[in-house]
């Protein structure tokens, strides 16, 4: 038996941000808490995102760090309750959207957040949330239509939360809101989206619709992301990358894999998630080649115009073309941390959806190669 679900409303295209008032109304949200960050406010992107509702003076919570923390979520929850809010309007990258999801979760559930961790079965305790409308300003995380959220807990763990209830009721994807994203962040968020589709396709879960979407996303992002990095003001290119990221998010119902499992302990060090993902991805190919059926592996390579024997080198070249770091050492990772990272990777929810579960020793081999 397979579980196949696609449930989010998506408004996509230039000026789709003007549909936000309509989506709030459809969701039954009369007084949303706007969840974003100070950087988005400083660049003017937040003002552009909410221009259609600017006169409403909705309350805001802008103290969202990257990555989002439990402390920040509780501060946002206090603002939500003090302002009498009845829903969340999350605007930004993955941090803002994940924080918005956690605020909506605690607004309707008794905490603490640790109760709802996926790794301990907490997903079953997640019921209906306060409604969320999500507006991405990057083309990468897919949190705007995804069933997951990640928040760093008070004990330092990067907590992963998974439930269909965490899917926002609507996503408003306006490529114009990504125009000001710097090249490095364009590359890092874009390769994160690419990896969502890559790892979803290689997952053993049975979901042919997701597989078809994943292959299109892989080809689309591979072709257009380097242009988005070098030609960030091109709206057509930005639209193509955002569509690829949206497609990639649709595929993650199949689950992710070794790259995301191994990224989690490095995320806990404060490193940018997408950057780590881009560095690690090529070095997971050897484990995939042993676990993914040859026919599927060939279909994956065809989408990338690569060969089974040359895929690792092609992915390394792709990362280099985006200006990503050459290894974890370049990011300042101490080699002595690698065994700890490998042990954590084995325990993550993502190691449950790899084509074949990997051991700590296998994750250490990948980490050493990526270092």
Automatic annotation (TrEMBL):
<keyword id="KW-0560">Oxidoreductase</keyword>
<dbReference type="InterPro" id="IPR001670">
    <property type="entry name" value="ADH_Fe/GldA"/>
</dbReference>
<comment type="similarity">
    <text>Belongs to the iron-containing alcohol dehydrogenase family.</text>
</comment>
<dbReference type="Pfam" id="PF00465">
    <property type="entry name" value="Fe-ADH"/>
</dbReference>
<dbReference type="InterPro" id="IPR056798">
    <property type="entry name" value="ADH_Fe_C"/>
</dbReference>
<protein>
    <submittedName>
        <fullName>Iron-containing alcohol dehydrogenase</fullName>
    </submittedName>
</protein>
<dbReference type="InterPro" id="IPR018211">
    <property type="entry name" value="ADH_Fe_CS"/>
</dbReference>
<dbReference type="InterPro" id="IPR039697">
    <property type="entry name" value="Alcohol_dehydrogenase_Fe"/>
</dbReference>
<keyword id="KW-0520">NAD</keyword>
<feature type="domain" description="Fe-containing alcohol dehydrogenase-like C-terminal">
    <location>
        <begin position="186"/>
        <end position="371"/>
    </location>
</feature>
<dbReference type="Pfam" id="PF25137">
    <property type="entry name" value="ADH_Fe_C"/>
</dbReference>
<feature type="domain" description="Alcohol dehydrogenase iron-type/glycerol dehydrogenase GldA">
    <location>
        <begin position="9"/>
        <end position="175"/>
    </location>
</feature>
């Amino acid at each position: 038996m397979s579980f196949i679900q696609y449930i989010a409303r998506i408004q996509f295209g230039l000026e789709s941000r003007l549909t936000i008032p309509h989506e709030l109304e459809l969701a039954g949200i009369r007084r949303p808490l706007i969840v974003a960050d100070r950087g988005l406010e400083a660049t003017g992107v937040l003002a552009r995102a909410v221009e259609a509702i600017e006169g409403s003076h909705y309350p805001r919570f802008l103290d969202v760090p990257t990555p989002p923390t439990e402390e920040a979520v509780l501060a946002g929850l206090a603002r939500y309750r003090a302002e009498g809010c009845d829903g969340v309007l999350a605007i930004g990258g993955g941090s803002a959207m994940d924080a918005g999801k956690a605020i909506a979760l605690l607004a309707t559930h008794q905490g603490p957040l640790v109760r709802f961790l996926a790794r301990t079965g907490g997903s079953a305790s997640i019921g209906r949330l306060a409604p969320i409308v999500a507006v991405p300003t990057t083309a990468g995380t897919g949190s705007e239509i995804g069933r997951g959220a990640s928040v760093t807990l008070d004990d330092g763990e990067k907590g992963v939360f998974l439930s269909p209830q965490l899917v926002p009721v609507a996503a408003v994807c306006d490529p114009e809101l990504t125009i000001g994203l710097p090249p490095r962040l364009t590359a890092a968020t874009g390769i994160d989206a690419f990896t969502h589709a890559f790892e979803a396709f290689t997952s053993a879960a049975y979901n042919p619709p997701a597989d078809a979407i994943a292959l299109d996303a892989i080809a689309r992002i591979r072709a257009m992301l380097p242009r988005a990095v070098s030609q960030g003001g091109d709206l057509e290119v930005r639209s193509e990358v955002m569509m690829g990221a949206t497609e990639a998010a649709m595929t993650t119902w199949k689950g992710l894999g070794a790259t995301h499992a191994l990224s989690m302990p490095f995320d806990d060090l404060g490193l940018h998630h997408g950057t780590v993902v881009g560095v690690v991805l090529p070095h997971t190919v050897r484990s995939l080649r042993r676990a993914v059926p040859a026919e599927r592996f060939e279909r994956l390579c065809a989408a990338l115009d690569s060969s089974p024997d040359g895929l690792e080198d092609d992915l390394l070249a792709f990362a280099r073309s985006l200006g990503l770091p050459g290894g974890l050492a370049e990011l300042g990772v101490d080699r002595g941390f690698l065994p700890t990272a490998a042990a954590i990777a084995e325990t993550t929810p993502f190691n449950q959806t790899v084509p074949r579960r990997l051991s700590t020793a296998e994750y250490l081999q990948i980490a050493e190669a990526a270092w």
